[in-house]
Each structure stands twice: as structure tokens, then as C-alpha cells.
Amino acid sequence: MSHPLPRRHFLRAGAGAAVGLLAGTPTRATTPAMRPDARPGRRRQAEPWGRIQRVAPDTWALVSTPRNEHPDARRTLCNGGIIAGRDAVMIIEGFASPAGAAWMAGQAERLTGRRPSHVVITHFHGDHVGGTAGYVHGDRIPAMLATATTRRLLAEQAAAHDSAR
After folding, report:
1. Neighbour-count burial of 96, counting CB atoms closer than 10 A to its CB (0-12 exposed, 13-18 middle, 19+ buried)
2. pTM of this prediction?
3. Which of 40, 27, 43 is nearest to 107 (CA)?
4. Gap between the Cα atoms of 150 and 87, Å rounded
5. Closest among 89, 25, 34, 23 to 56, alpha carbons compared
6. Which among 112, 105, 120, 97 has a CA at the least distance from the CA of 54?
7. Cβ atoms of residues 78 and 54 within 8 Å
8. Bridge partners of 61?
9. CA distance 92 to 56
10. Could you read off the pLDDT of 21-48 as tens digits, one per residue?
11. Which of 8, 16, 23, 76 could form a disulfide linkage to 100, CB 3.0–4.6 angstroms apart?
12. Smallest Cα–Cα separation from 13: which of 83, 87, 86?
């Protein structure tokens, strides 16, 4: 009988492949967040809506922990992550609000020294796509990566929003 792979182990195993897709080989420790004392599993940043945790070199997970009593509890809502390659930084998920996505982009910059160049949207649920506008930074918009169905649904949602104005 097979046992499901724990999420943390899945993230560690998948990190190398994702970094390879982004930029070839992972970067080496160059930022304060990548010092030897920043071991996987060590909490790096915590807020009422979630915590960022390093799970592998150049890879961090956002574990959303919404506390209903906090006014910003639903800022991120879904789990996500940051993966840094030599030439690119990828964030996983668009989160529930633009404030959540903007916060996550800020965390990517804090941890890697770079803004996200790519955002992966895993599927079309509000807690995964509701905040994508938060990734816009000036005139820079990261590449949004998603399935054809998710891209179609996002375009339909945008068109409906524009026609409602």
C-alpha cells in the first residue's frame, strides 16, 4: 500500500525540477535569507494570514493560516510558494486578494533580491486567482502561467468585469 507524499516532501522534491525549468541550475547563497542558518523548515516571516518557510535551497513555501479574528485574515487564503532560479523568480498562486499577491511579491524581493518574473496559477478558484492584479509593479507584469482552461476563465472573468463598468 502506498502512502501519500507529505506536502513538505513534495515541495522539496519538486523544487529542483522547477528551478531547472526556470533557469538551469539553482543559485547559491547570496542573500541574507540564504545563509547557512536559514535551514529548511525554519520560519522566515509570519503574518496573521500566513508564514513563509524555506523548504529547500532557493525555495520557500507560503503556508496560509488565516485567523478569522484578524481583518486581513483572508489576504492570501491558499498556500503557495517562491522558487528562485539564476535568471528568474517564480511565485506559485495568485492568492485571494491583490494585497496578498503584492505581499508575496514583496517577500520574493526580500528573499531573492528580485521581483517575480513568473506566476503559476494552479487552477481557477477565487483563492488562487483573486489577487493576480497585485503582481503588477509599475509597468512590469510577470508572465502568468496556467492551463488553457484557467487562462480562458480568467479572460472571461476580466471581460465580464470590464462590461460591468
Report:
1. buried
2. 0.69
3. 43
4. 26
5. 34
6. 112
7. no
8. 53, 81
9. 15
10. 444 444 433 344 443 334 555 546 678 7
11. 76
12. 83
Which cell goes with 98?
491583490
Render pLDDT for 99-139 as a digit per residue (tens, 0 to 9).
989 999 999 999 999 999 999 998 887 777 888 888 999 98
Q: Identify the H or E element spanning 149.
A: helix 148-164
Contacts of 128 (CB under 8 A, 6+ apart): 78, 93, 94, 95, 121, 122
**What residue type is 55 in one-letter code?**
V
In one-letter notation, the amino acid at residue 151 is: R
The secondary structure element, H or E, covering residue 126 is helix 126-129
C-alpha cell at 24: 538551469
